[in-house]
């Protein structure tokens, strides 16, 4: 998606994990409600400590609701617990009797980021000896409901409470989208086949194609999506891998070249794909342009495994072959424990890549990629892989830590003259 996988505003989401992966599993951790304690000259926010918490961020607005997970009027990052609490004191803040506090919290638990916005808190309903004097003088204020106060706040003009988002959706919402608004969430409590389309096709021949057949169904187990492969011998034991013909036309989802995508025929050295793997996308249910994508996944380990978390174009406005319309990789890694290029560069599972793919040529395939290398294999644990995609840049992060950014100007590579008729972000300016 992190915490569930999340799309925070329009491109086609494709999840492709070759040979095995668990995507977007939900941990048992739930962000607790924030406790607010009035102080003599300010207030304290806190949540209980729990094994696995690494950091906590508090964001507080006074008398103004959040339109998304944005920075608050008062904000703080806490990196150590004290007295079994993750807490922060906001000082030199004068709370008033009629104030309502809106709070959202971000917790790094293990390697995942969890966010939660709690219910609004009316100051006079807080506990403690440091309440504003008016709360004590007027008991009616203490009895005033938070709902009534929230209704008053919500009557503010939309222009003051919503920063318009540049996100575009394939199915436009009734109301304008606000910056930071959540528009797509999948927790995989079950596999919703009206949302997720399973591909049935062979990849088109190219120097960058996976030597697999896309077929079969992923499954959900304990809040995790499992994408599991089969060897050809298990998929079709009646067809020999070196001498067979397979016609998938009645189920095939291919749209570019159905003769090649739907009908497989061995010939000479050309054998059937040795591996069959499920591939899922939201192609027929959801697409978007610009936003933040969070995907929590555990990548596979093993030689010859190349897991991909992708965004692919829905409209293919700049062309349908050779990445003419581009591909965005939220994350890509290799399953190998150790792997080096001939000149010595390490590219094994301790290196994660993110970026744009604009050419099938191996020499140009990583021209627009950023990377991070760690001391441990990325397949050892779940991580939160994120891409923030805007009209100005592509920013990539892992577990909330940004590791690379790509700016506009892809057309300057001269890989596709059509990009010059688009915006500076072309070809990544379309759904």
UniProtKB/TrEMBL annotation:
Transmembrane segments: 12-29
Residue ranges constituting the CBM39 domain according to the UniProt record: 29-128
InterPro entries the UniProt entry points to: Beta-glucanase-like, BGBP_N, BGBP_N_sf, ConA-like_dom_sf, Glycosyl_Hydrlase_16
GO BP of this protein: carbohydrate metabolic process; innate immune response
Keyword terms, alphabetized: Immunity, Innate immunity, Membrane, Transmembrane, Transmembrane helix
Domain GH16: 164-431
A Gene Ontology molecular function term of the record: carbohydrate binding
Assigned protein family: Belongs to the insect beta-1,3-glucan binding protein family.
Name the record gives this protein: Gram-negative bacteria-binding protein 1 isoform X2
Organism: Drosophila hydei
């Amino acid at each position: 998606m992190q915490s569930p996988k999340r799309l925070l505003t329009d491109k086609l989401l494709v999840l492709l994990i070759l040979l095995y992966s668990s995507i977007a599993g939900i941990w048992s951790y739930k962000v607790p409600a924030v406790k607010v304690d009035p102080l003599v000259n300010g207030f304290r926010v806190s949540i209980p400590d729990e094994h696995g918490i690494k950091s906590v961020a508090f964001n507080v607005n006074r008398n103004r609701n959040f339109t998304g997970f944005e920075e608050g009027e008062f904000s703080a990052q806490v990196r150590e617990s004290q007295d079994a609490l993750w807490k922060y004191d906001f000082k030199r803040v004068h709370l008033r009797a009629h104030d309502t506090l809106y709070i959202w919290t971000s917790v790094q638990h293990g390697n995942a980021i969890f966010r939660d916005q709690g219910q609004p808190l009316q100051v006079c309903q807080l506990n403690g000896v440091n309440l504003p004097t008016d709360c004590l003088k007027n008991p009616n204020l203490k009895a005033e409901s938070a709902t009534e106060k929230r209704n008053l706040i919500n009557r503010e003009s939309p222009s003051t409470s919503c920063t318009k988002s540049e996100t575009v959706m394939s199915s436009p919402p009734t109301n304008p989208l606000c910056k930071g608004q959540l528009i797509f969430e999948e927790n995989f409590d079950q596999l919703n086949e009206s949302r997720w389309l399973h591909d049935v096709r062979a990849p088109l021949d190219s120097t960058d194609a996976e030597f697999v057949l896309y077929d079969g169904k992923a499954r959900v187990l304990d809040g995790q999506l499992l994408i599991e492969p089969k060897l050809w011998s298990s998929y079709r034991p009646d067809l020999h891998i070196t001498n067979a013909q397979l016609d998938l036309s009645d189920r095939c989802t291919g749209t570019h070249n159905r003769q090649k995508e739907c009908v497989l025929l061995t010939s000479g050295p050309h054998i059937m794909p040795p591996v069959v793997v499920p591939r899922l996308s939201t192609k027929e249910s959801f697409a978007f342009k610009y936003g933040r994508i969070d995907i929590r996944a555990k990548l596979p380990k093993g030689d010859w495994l190349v897991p991909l978390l992708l965004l692919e174009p829905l409209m293919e406005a700049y062309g349908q072959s050779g990445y003419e319309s581009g591909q965005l990789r939220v994350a890509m890694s290799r399953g190998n424990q150790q792997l080096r290029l001939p000149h010595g560069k390490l590219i094994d599972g301790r290196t994660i890549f993110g970026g744009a793919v604009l050419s099938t040529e191996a020499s140009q395939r990583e021209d627009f990629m950023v990377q991070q290398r760690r001391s441990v294999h990325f397949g050892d644990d779940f991580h939160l892989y994120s891409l923030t995609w805007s009209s100005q840049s592509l920013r990539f992060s892992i577990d909330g830590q940004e590791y690379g950014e790509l700016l506009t100007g892809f057309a300057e590579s001269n890989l596709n003259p059509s990009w010059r008729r688009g915006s500076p972000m072309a070809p990544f300016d379309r759904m």
